[in-house]
Specification:
The structure is a single chain. The protein is of the alpha/beta class. The protein contains nine helices and ten strands. A five-stranded parallel β-sheet has the order 4-5-6-7-8. Helix 7 links the parallel strand 7 and strand 8. Helix 8 crosses helix 9. The protein starts with a strand and ends with a strand.
Length: about 280
């Protein structure tokens, strides 16, 4: 059985409230050994961290990690340079740490830019940019990688990352742009997050990205409960389905699936700076 690491999921979603532990145990039985629960707001990040702490002593489920961050659609409507903004950033920083003050979040994210939707204003975009930069700076302070969300905002996202986060490392989540911009992110030290969309019949662009970048620069993700791969498209996603993503990546790279899976598995540890072993920890 291949081993799998889901680098991006949202298991605090209420859709899992009735069977969350069973979902965890089932995915573990199917080869999922590690899952990162991604924060998308202060409240959301807190709930993901609570799930990680609740299940960390339970056997026969994956090892769970958490991140702290604000999805661009969820950012507070104030500038991070105000007094209130500074207080908020301090709260985010505290949330990244355990009771002893040690950083136990493994990334800042998901953060970034989202221009999708006619309802957004120029001020919304300015706030997104301010918060994206502010949370990149927090990642630098804590020596954490970042998880980037970018939708309909290709150039502005890349420009900010190039100016403020080159060398920080992390993942460009749910990559939806072309192979050329993927290569540019890789030059800056980032991995490309590939999920269920690579299995879609209309996913030609993401398939081309996979075909044209090194497999060592790819990490696998689900974005559960969303973006379930074919043949589960439109249904609740979960981390065991990542095997379909790995299978498609292996096909596109013309590789043996076990070899591809092993590389992708190792990539996830590398991007999150996790030292593998009996007592796994994040590399500081």
């Amino acid at each position: 059985m291949i081993k799998m690491f889901d680098t991006h999921a949202h298991y605090n979603d209420e859709i899992y409230n009735d069977d969350r532990e069973k979902v965890f145990s089932d995915m573990y039985a199917n080869g999922v050994t590690h899952v990162t629960l991604i924060g998308a707001s202060l409240k959301d990040s807190k709930s993901e961290k609570e799930i990680v702490n609740k299940y960390k002593s339970i056997s026969n489920i994956p090892t769970l990690y958490y991140t702290i961050g604000d999805h661009p659609d969820e950012i507070p409507k104030f500038t991070p340079y105000s007094v209130e903004g500074v207080s908020y950033l301090n709260e985010l920083e505290l949330l990244c740490k355990d009771e002893s003050g040690k950083v136990d979040a493994i990334a800042i994210g998901e953060i970034g830019m989202d221009y999708h939707g006619d309802f957004k204003t120029e001020e919304d975009f300015k706030n997104q940019e301010r918060w994206f930069i502010a949370e990149i700076e927090l990642a630098k302070k804590l020596n954490l990688p970042i998880v980037i969300h970018s939708r309909d905002a290709c150039q502005i996202t890349y420009d900010i990352v190039k100016q403020h986060a080159s060398g920080v490392g992390g993942i460009v989540h749910c990559f939806s742009y072309d192979k050329e911009i993927a290569k540019e992110y890789i030059k800056l030290g980032f991995h490309i997050g590939i999920g269920g969309t690579v299995t879609f019949k209309n996913g030609r662009k993401v398939k081309e990205v996979v075909e044209n970048i090194p497999i060592e620069s790819i990490v696998t993700e689900t974005d559960a409960p969303w973006l379930a791969p074919t043949p589960f498209r439109g249904k609740r996603n979960q981390s065991a389905y990542i095997s379909y993503v790995i299978e498609e990546i292996a096909r596109l790279k013309n590789m043996d699936i076990e070899k591809a899976a092993d590389i992708l598995y190792n990539n996830a540890f590398n991007v999150y700076k996790i030292i593998r072993g009996k007592n796994e920890s994040r590399e500081i």
